[in-house]
Write a sequence for this structure.
């Protein structure tokens, strides 16, 4: 039986949570940022339900901190889980030094993955499931033993991992595109763009050198992106280690069966309309391949 989840990195009190979710005069703001959280959450949930795009949150509601963004994400997670099922893992974003420098952050970010967002390799999805696709080939880990305390190093971490997978992280970009970029706060508050994740066959950690893998993304046989796995924080294992320790230090945990999608340094394949459709293949060397058809 899975244990009840705590919010990632932050614990929101029941009093604060009810203040966020219950409509009423004087209850639209939360914390020193003076952000209208209820209105924000309602707008994000409506965009998911209606498959529409919204303006950057920081443009509509004003600036807010990274800490506040995770608080908003925790409340949004409760709303999304009613439609998408329980949280069944996490994705890591800003997982390369180049991405962190580009967006002005000094560490990665994370967001929840939901049970109904997990798709096996070889599946078919309708293009209508997407507004603006953002697709990447990544390495994913399935947790075998509960991690609820800090882990010293990668070698110790490997003892907690059941499987390593070639994977797709398939985001659905929910912001109206313009010349500017979303802030890390925009992305974190909305769950860092998670939509679907596709897992290839599981391989035991001791049977593959993850750091020797090159991550390739192909559409209809054409290579769209290619990047060494070591561009992800020096090793995808470091990405998992960062997440596990960040959660453990704040009272969270990675549970058996959780999937962690570790990030990539290659640009995502981002497109709208007919070019969403295609036969996608992720190649990860000795780790194997992952495939998906969008039609």
């Amino acid at each position: 039986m899975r244990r009840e989840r705590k919010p990632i990195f932050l614990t929101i009190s029941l009093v604060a949570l009810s203040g966020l979710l219950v409509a009423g005069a004087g209850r639209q703001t939360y914390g020193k940022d003076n952000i209208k959280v209820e209105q924000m959450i309602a707008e994000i949930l409506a965009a998911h339900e209606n498959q529409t795009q919204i303006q950057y949150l920081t443009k509509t509601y004003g600036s807010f901190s990274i800490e506040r963004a995770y608080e908003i994400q925790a409340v949004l997670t409760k709303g999304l889980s009613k439609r998408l099922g329980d949280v069944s893992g996490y994705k890591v974003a800003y997982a390369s030094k180049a991405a962190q420098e580009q967006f002005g952050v000094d560490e990665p970010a994370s967001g929840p993955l939901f049970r109904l967002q997990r798709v096996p390799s070889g599946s078919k999805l309708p293009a209508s499931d997407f507004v603006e696709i953002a697709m990447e080939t990544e390495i994913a880990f399935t947790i075998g033993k509960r991690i609820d305390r800090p882990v010293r190093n990668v070698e110790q971490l490997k003892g907690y991992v059941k499987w390593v997978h070639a994977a797709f992280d398939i985001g659905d970009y929910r912001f109206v595109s313009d010349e500017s970029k979303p802030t890390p706060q925009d992305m974190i508050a909305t769950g860092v763009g998670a939509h679907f994740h596709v897992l290839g066959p599981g391989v035991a950690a001791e049977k593959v050198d993850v750091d020797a893998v090159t991550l390739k993304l192909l559409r209809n046989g054409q290579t769209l992106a290619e990047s060494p796995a070591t561009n992800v924080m020096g090793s995808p294992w470091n990405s998992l280690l960062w997440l596990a320790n960040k959660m453990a230090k704040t009272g969270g945990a990675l549970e058996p069966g959780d999937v962690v999608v570790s990030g990539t340094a290659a640009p995502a394949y981002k497109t709208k309309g007919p070019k969403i459709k295609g036969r996608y293949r992720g190649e990860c060397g000795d780790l194997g391949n992952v495939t998906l058809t969008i039609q």
